[in-house]
Design brief:
The chain has 608 residues and is α/β, with parallel strands linked by helices. The protein contains 24 helices and 11 strands. Helix 3 (74-91) packs antiparallel against helix 12 (323-336) and helix 11 packs across helix 12 (323-336). It is elongated.
């Protein structure tokens, strides 16, 4: 369509969102602008309200469980779902993304709570938010696609393993105290506390898990967590009333908050109030320095998980998200949420998928989910205190199982190339025994090295000396044609030029370097090529470069090879190079003392 050239133009295709073309403004609030630009009516609002209600039912117990798994009181998970859920939905680039606390972040956030407490956790969330805003502002969102699949699969399975291990404490009711940071120490602490296991806690967890697994097969319209956790909490309360000896840990017995001088069991029933995440004053420079690494880890995990969730939502709805706007919004959400008691937030894949399946039309569905979570705090806070800790642990155990994708992991191990399996298993083990940042960094480097090795294997060379009946190239006598097929970069340059160095100098008088199938050449490849040219010219031979593609030719022009080496000729194609080579052979006698720079013939001038 015709538009003012000073204004932003748009293109759209059936089934896709309107996607901006040309220079883009600061990436923010693109999803809701696109949703309203396509028209938004009462039917859309009704669909968003219904979808938001379904997601809220899922998010309510899960947000509490995730906060508890991190080591924070459960209300902080709910505050995260409320504040980040609203902010990211209104400012983000994905129409269907639901943001809140997620299971993947547990392995990063739990050590922060152990070392720096809740204030350190919220301060790290603010720092991570600033990093995410910077990533979105420089439009780094599209770079996430370069993270190899074995890396994401490996660290996701590793995170799931750690999450499942953390639930053993509440599933068996073990009296371990705070668990250590390192995985093997966690296992040791759990094993040493095995004598404190409770059959009642295990029964509660098993009942909850069975309901979570089998309820969806019978009841499909009501989310299984609502049925399972509500039923088990009510059952436990009834059993405790008639059998006082039946004691299990609940949110009310585990967590207490003082509100206005009154001790409140479970979660407080008020709205989140603004306060400085780090307490009074300003955070110390020492604290900021110690939190820089964890904040970077939070930001990287949030970026990866959120954008992967957005990609999956795109696949489910045939839409396109704006990754940079999503990063900026996620950063703003993580900056704002800690000022209201929230912890680090990311895009939640399971809740986003639930949002899509429930019929969401716009980001207002996520806003609705956050508002309903807030209303639940105001209206249902006293009832939340009866929720058993073992039930929440069972819920997280199921989340970890779904997150691990054990069958898919095993399938990759069976069918993927050995190099990819090495990356997959390495990322898994590094995530479990170290952390996600180490796993992603090492896995990415391993994948990059393996990629370069594969690319170097794709670079092929072929020598053709003089014409023969079966020769692919009919080269004149005394002309050596050396073809390079593939990228000429630092990983392939040595192999590509080694064959040329083995050719005897008296077997040819003109060398044609055919680069017509070299898509790219880097500095190392160019130096290797120039060294080969110098070596041939020092033998008083002639060199013709044939058919370089635009990228190699740009490098050649900047290097001014024809000025530096008067003996060098350049041709736009192999046929032109063969004509030039034939004229050079005719102009120079077969002697090693032949003049290095014969006067160019008319045919040489025209061919070049």
């Amino acid at each position: 369509m015709s538009v003012d050239p000073k204004r932003q133009s748009y293109e759209s295709t059936p089934g896709e969102d309107v996607v901006p073309k040309g220079p883009q403004p600061f990436p923010i609030a693109t999803a809701i602008r696109r949703a309203f630009a396509k028209g938004y009516g009462l039917g859309d609002l009704r669909a968003d309200a219904m979808a938001g209600a379904v997601v809220a039912v899922v998010a309510l117990p899960l947000s509490m469980a995730l906060a508890i798994a991190v080591g924070a009181p459960p209300q902080h998970g709910l505050y995260t779902a409320i504040v980040a859920g609203i902010v990211v939905a209104l400012l983000g680039g994905c129409k269907f993304q639901v943001t809140g606390p997620t299971a993947a972040s547990i392995v990063i956030l739990a050590p922060i709570v152990n070392r720096h407490g809740l204030t350190g956790l919220m301060t790290a969330g603010v720092m991570a938010g600033l990093i995410l805003i910077a990533l979105g502002a420089v439009r780094a969102g599209s770079l996430i696609r370069f993270i190899p699949y074995p890396v994401t699969t490996g660290f996701t399975a590793g995170i799931a393993t750690v999450i499942a291990t953390l639930q053993i404490k509440d599933i068996f009711g073990l009296a371990t105290g705070p668990l250590p940071d390192h995985y093997m120490e966690k296992l040791s602490a759990l094993w040493e506390a095995r004598t404190t296991a409770s059959v009642a806690e295990l029964g509660v967890a098993a009942t909850t898990l069975a309901l979570l697994v089998y309820t969806p097969r019978v009841i499909k319209k009501v989310p299984a967590p609502l049925i399972a956790i509500s039923f088990v909490a009510a059952l436990c309360a009834v059993v405790h009333r008639f059998a006082p000896g039946f004691e299990i840990a609940t949110i009310g017995t585990r967590f207490h908050t003082t509100v206005g001088g009154v001790d409140v069991a479970g979660i407080p029933g008020g709205v989140p109030t603004p306060a400085l995440p780090w307490g009074s004053g300003l955070p110390s420079f020492h604290l900021l320095t110690e939190l820089m690494g964890p904040a970077f880890a939070i930001a990287m995990l949030a970026a990866i998980e959120s954008l992967l969730s957005a990609v999956i939502a795109d696949g489910m709805t045939n839409t396109k998200h704006d990754p940079n706007a999503e990063l900026v919004a996620l950063g703003i959400g993580n900056v704002v949420a800690p000022f209201f008691g929230g912890i680090a937030a990311t895009g939640a894949l399971a809740r986003t998928a639930t949002n899509v399946r429930a019929g969401a039309r716009s980001p207002l569905a996520s806003v609705t989910h956050a508002v309903l979570v807030l209303l639940s705090i105001l209206l249902l806070a006293p009832l939340v205190s009866y929720v058993p800790m073992a039930s929440l642990a069972a819920l997280l155990l199921l989340v970890a199982w779904n997150m691990s994708e054990v069958r898919h992991f095993a399938h990759l191990v069976r069918v993927a190339p050995r190099s990819d399996v090495l990356v997959l298993v390495s990322c898994f083990l590094l995530t479990v025994f170290f952390d996600m940042v180490v796993a992603v960094s090492v896995g990415f480097m391993m994948a990059a090295v393996l990629f370069m090795k594969r690319m170097s294997d794709l670079t092929e060379t072929r020598l053709t000396l003089d014409a023969s009946e079966d020769a692919p190239i009919k080269a004149p006598k005394g002309v050596l044609v050396y073809e390079i097929n593939g990228p000429l970069f630092f990983g392939a340059s040595q192999n590509a030029m080694s064959t040329l160095g083995a050719v005897r100098g008296d077997s040819f008088r003109v060398l044609i370097l055919h680069l017509g199938r070299v898509p790219v050449i880097d500095a190392t490849g160019f130096v290797a090529l120039e060294n080969a040219i110098d070596s041939v010219i020092r033998q008083k031979k002639h060199v013709v470069l044939a058919g370089p593609l635009p990228r190699p030719r740009t490098i050649f022009d900047k290097a001014r090879l024809e000025t530096t080496h008067p003996e060098l000729r350049m041709a736009e194609s192999l046929d032109a190079a063969l004509v030039i080579a034939a004229s050079l052979v005719d102009a120079s006698p077969p002697s090693r003392t032949t003049s290095m720079s014969p006067p160019p013939t008319p045919s040489t001038r025209s061919a070049a």
